[in-house]
Design a protein that fits this description.
281 residues; globular; alpha+beta; D-amino Acid Aminotransferase, Chain A, domain 2; six-stranded antiparallel beta sheet; aminotransferase; D-amino Acid Aminotransferase, Chain A, domain 1
Length: 281
Amino acid sequence: MEYVNLNGQLVRDADAKIHISDLGLRRGYGAFEFFRVLRGIPVFIEDHLERFENSSRAIDLEVPYSRAELEGFIRELIQVNELLSAGIQLVLTGGYSEDIFTPGEPNLIIAPIALREYSPALYRQGVKVITHRHVREIPEAKTIAYLTAVKLGPRMKAEGAAEVIYHDGKWVSEGARSSLGFIKDGVLITAKDGVLPGITRLHALRLAAKLMPIEQRAFTLEELYAADEAFITSSTRGVMPVTRIDDRPVGNGQVGPRVSALVKAFQAHVEEYLRAQQVSS
């Protein structure tokens, strides 16, 4: 990835620099957004930019560019870097601060990221997730505060887990980098409050509404363990089946029919979105 956008200017990756007084570095104060680029098209960009603005506003930062300007910066990056399949991250920091506490003018970074491709076998066999007691601060905002998630990386790897699911000791919220849903007695259940409004989950729920009843509500760890089927959603994974939670199988330990149908429906939905974008461009 040769170019990034720093505060509205296209610069070479090697020349992009932020001063050490930036509050994103010194205090972990900032918001970010992430989405996929497929076939040179930023997937669900309109939803992601809206969430980026909402997340920034939730921590009292204002994005210094219009949504149209942001989209222009993103499409320029895709073009100059010749991106066909990649990720793009937007980061808005608290800016430079003389006292390393008081926010200044925000700094905006837009940078491409190389992505791993998930094996199709994972969508047929499902993945394992582990649980961890943790409550995110301002969970409705996508902030750069990822201390717990990064710290748990080695544990996830050691236990062969694809994701860690947060709970407060009783109530379950979401994954460290994903949204969570499960199915019990034919009903899809997913959290309503106290979670990040996942973009992939948003689209998946619209599709699921045609396949099964949906309940958006609080649910317990015990309910999750008793699920018939389960899945996580994210920009990189799409809808990914979960067949094991900690040391317990989900249902019969196989990908269930309802989650399988949702996986296929979401993949078809993305294909339809890409075709529509190609036609409009």
